[in-house]
Amino acid sequence: MMTSIDGRIVTTHWPDLGEGRREYERVHAAIGADAWMCGRITMEPFAGALRSDEEVVRESSGVERPDFIAPHAGSSHAVAVDPSGKLAWTSSDIDGDHVITVLTRRVSDEYLDFLRARGVSYVIAGAREVELAAALERLASGFGIRTVMLEGGGRINGSMLRDGLIDEVSVLVAPVVDGAIGTPTLFDVDDPHGTFAPRKLVLETVERRANDVLWLRYRVTTP
Fold it and tell me: Do 202 and 219 form a contact (C-beta atoms < 8 A)?
């Protein structure tokens, strides 16, 4: 992730970082994960289109249906967490990375037919909300994915942290103070029962990159 000094992650209105902005893609490539994962909102620009509300509410009976692995040649994967199936994919790859969408049992058979026709793979994990640990197990067993690079937004980051599924925090801190109130932050944890315990991090490395961007890598300890 790239954040401002105050932990905010919506970068569109930031000052020009020049070469510093390109550090994000350099780090992405350097980590060399088997897949990168984003939540539905972050993935919208990559999907190309959204389904209408009328299409989304055509839910299934919640019965179990098998995952689908589409034929693909790529060795890297782009994973979208899309519980209700809102993304209307126009392609089955993003810059050569094969698209896998993570769904719940509430999506309709019609939507699954649509994904298969587009050549988009999917795994189904959870009844109405994605069971993230189960989804990661399906990605490992079905696609051989062992390392996932999580790239936001704040809610999916927070959910993965809450469920103990993050081993390392790799963050590029931009020399920017954002200050916008109510915008997404690096971790936005949904904790309705008040059971989330803040995680302590252990600093592993720190690098000064182009245009005063700092690359920090932390190991996540158990709560």
Answer: yes
Domain 1-33+151-223 part of CATH 3.40.430.10? yes
What φ, ψ does residue 26 adopt, rounded to 5°? -65, -45
pTM (two decimals): 0.93
pLDDT of 210 strictly over 80: yes
Helices marked H in the chain: 23-31, 40-47, 53-56, 109-118, 132-143, 154-162
210 contacts 38 by C-beta, under 8 angstroms: no
| All structural domains of the chain with their residue ranges | 1-33+151-223, 34-146
**Strands 77-81, 97-103: parallel, antiparallel or unpaired by DSSP?**
parallel
State how far the Cα of 194 lies from the Cα of 197, in Å rounded to an integer. 9
Given a cut of 80, is residue 223 above it in pLDDT?
no
CA distances from 32 to 145, 149, 177 (A): 12, 9, 30
